[in-house]
Design a protein that fits this description.
120 residues, alpha+beta, 3-stranded antiparallel sheet, 21% helix, extended
């Protein structure tokens, strides 16, 4: 029951019931990327959207699909092949706000403040 309620109201976990219905009635499946995210567009080709496999994170869109989702004209827009070259790095998610986030002055797993608090 709780899963059903989440599907109706909580959009940040996965697709909501409204998105699922809209995708079923008006969506045309275009393709899938290496993370199993599914890409759809409506029949008029005026709207495009993604159904994420796991956590919803816009940084999980690979470069070849980024141009497609933003209606950019590009050579690879309609190729969507998964061929990768050996010089290409694998996609890494956005780590901002996590323990693995980059900080230039991070030493010994602690971030030193450049100021001192006037309250002790």
């Amino acid at each position: 029951m709780l899963t059903f309620i989440k599907k109706i109201f909580v959009w940040w976990n996965q697709e909501t019931l409204g998105t699922k219905l809209y995708t079923f009635f008006f969506g045309k499946f275009v393709g899938k990327d290496e993370f199993d995210n599914k890409y759809y567009e409506n029949k008029k080709k005026t709207k495009r959207w993604i159904i994420y496999k796991d956590e919803i994170d816009a940084s999980k869109i690979p470069n070849d699909w980024f141009s497609w989702i933003h209606f950019m004209k590009n050579k690879i827009e309609y190729k969507h092949d998964t061929k990768k070259y050996k010089w290409q790095k694998p996609h890494s998610p956005n780590l901002t706000g996590t323990e693995k986030a980059y900080h230039p002055n991070k030493k010994n797993d602690q971030i030193k403040k450049k100021y001192t608090s006037w309250k002790n």
